[in-house]
Design brief:
Blueprint lengths: L1 H25 L3 E9 L4 H12 L3 E7 L6 H4 L4 E5 L12 H21 L6 E6 L5 H12 L2 E6 L3 H8 L5 H14 L4 E4 L2 H11 L4 E2 L13 H12 L16 E4 L2 E4 L5 E6 L9 H16 L6 E6 L5 H10 L5 E4 L8 H7 L2 E4 L11 H8 L4 E4 L15 E3 L2 H12 L6 H17 L4 H8 L7
Parallel strand pairs: 1-2, 1-4, 2-3, 4-5, 5-6, 6-7, 10-11, 10-13, 11-12, 13-14, 14-15
Antiparallel strand pairs: 8-9
Helix pairs in contact: 4-5, 6-7, 9-12, 10-14
């Protein structure tokens, strides 16, 4: 009985506080950006926060600690970061269902505590997925505080859960209901593709505006001298990048104080991943094995250095497979990069590889957007709506299986780096990517998102 009384007192207090401060916060441009994940590994929500700050908003950014957020966020006086407490690790002590229930309760109360202990927000923008408990908790806060409830749909939570469970699993059905019910309560919705916009409208009667991912200004091409300096720095930690001569790398060298590419350098490919179920990295590993076999049989293919960046649950699984490979012509490096070094890595490579398949088939890979921002041609795994971003043989290449990826790698690197046909293809792709870069994140955000926050 006393618990009910305390709860009633708590709710009444909240309503009184809302009445006292409602005039003040309605006049302020306060926005809360919520992501139930590692803030430093949530680039799109960080870009939202930076754009809000540029347009004069006071921003509260809520998420988990882990990777460092962007320097623009850390140093920005308009942005306050509120870190959530990670739930206790109980996987080895209790059943999976009990762990999930405890984790959800923990996140619910922790998120409520943070929301009600910061300044009152006029708008709440949250990332979905995850949907449980974020979407219901943020809606509850918005109802009490008379705030605008806005969702940015990156994918569907229920489709991601179905990768580990099944579509008919009770938990998956519950997550879908949560998304449908509370998604329909949002005053505004954004999504990452036209395919998702149509799906939200047709299936759930949810109207959303397409806010495409676009690269921020940090992702851009860099001159050869800057590539050389970056690769020298990388060579200090990873011997695979070291050159045979002083002040040289495996890709470049300094001759008479002028930087030039080595004429017999290896090919340089890069892929970034979150090491999850929606990226089948066995496709790349099998294609590299076929490429290795092709080098043994032919002399017109270069060695390859393949850089794979990112952290995630399946990394150790794939690393154990990589360690078993006895390749003589292919080297895989998995470096840990600072946020400012990642764009330089992309800008230094010859080809990007994307294995993102999308659990829903409706979201577009941001890693390709980053590569395009650095004017890096891409080979991407083909799925339902990829053509909204990658157009085969126009601004990149697509593949659907190991054989197709192997053939594309051999095509791209045949007689490397002296193949005129490959040079023409590379130049055509980069010309299209140069056009793509004209519409950067903030300009696109101003035209699509900002009007929803100036009403």
């Amino acid at each position: 009985m006393w618990i009910i009384c305390l709860l009633c007192v708590f709710l009444v207090t909240l309503f009184i506080c809302r009445k006292l401060y409602i005039k003040k916060y309605k006049e302020c441009k306060n926005v809360c950006v919520v992501v139930l994940g590692d803030l430093g590994r949530s680039p799109r929500m960080q870009y939202h926060a930076v754009s809000f700050a540029k347009e004069g908003f006071m921003v509260d950014l809520i998420g988990y600690p882990g990777s460092l957020p962007l320097k623009e966020i850390i140093d920005n006086p308009r942005i306050r970061i509120y870190y959530l407490l990670p739930p206790p690790e109980l996987e080895n002590k209790l059943s999976r269902l009990v762990c999930y229930a405890i984790k959800t309760l923990w996140q619910t109360f922790n998120l409520l505590l943070v929301l009600f202990n910061k300044r009152i927000s006029k708008y709440v923008l949250l990332q979905n997925p995850p949907a449980i408990p974020t979407i219901s908790v943020c809606w509850f806060y918005c109802v009490l505080m008379d705030s605008q409830f806005i969702i940015d749909w990156h994918n569907y939570a229920h489709s991601i859960m179905a990768l580990n469970l099944t579509k008919d699993h009770l938990l998956v059905k519950f997550a879908k209901w949560i998304e449908v019910f509370f998604g329909s309560k949002a005053q505004s919705n954004f999504c990452v593709s036209k395919a998702m916009k149509e799906d939200l409208q047709n299936k759930w009667k949810i109207k959303a505006d397409v806010l495409y991912d676009r690269p921020p200004n940090e992702f851009h091409p860099i001159p050869l001298a800057e590539k050389h300096a970056f690769l020298l720095k990388l060579g200090e930690k990873y011997s695979s990048f070291k050159g045979l001569k002083e002040n040289s790398t495996i890709f470049s060298e300094c001759v008479s104080n002028a930087v030039q590419l080595s004429p017999k350098r290896p090919g340089f490919i890069v892929s970034s991943t979150s090491w999850t179920e929606d990226e089948d990295f066995s496709i790349l590993l099998d294609a590299l094995q076929e490429y290795e076999n092709a080098i043994v049989q032919s002399c017109n293919l270069p060695d390859l250095i393949c850089v794979i960046t990112g952290k995630g649950p399946l990394k150790e699984f794939y690393m154990s497979i990589i360690k078993l490979k006895n390749w003589k012509h292919i080297t895989i490096v998995t470096p840990w990069l600072e946020s400012e070094d990642y764009p330089k890595m992309l800008a230094s490579a010859d080809l990007g590889i994307c294995l993102h398949t999308s659990s829903s088939g409706l979201d577009l890979p941001m890693k390709v957007v980053d590569m395009f921002g650095c004017e890096l041609p891409v080979c991407a795994y083909d799925f339902n709506c990829l053509s909204e971003l990658v157009k085969h043989n126009e601004n990149g290449m697509v593949f659907s299986n190991v054989k197709e990826l192997t053939d594309l790698l051999k095509l791209w690197f045949e007689d490397f780096p002296n193949n005129p046909s490959q040079h023409k293809l590379d130049e055509r792709f980069r010309a299209e990517l140069h056009k793509f870069q004209e519409n950067r994140w903030h300009n696109n955000w101003i035209s699509v998102a900002l009007p929803h926050f100036n009403e």
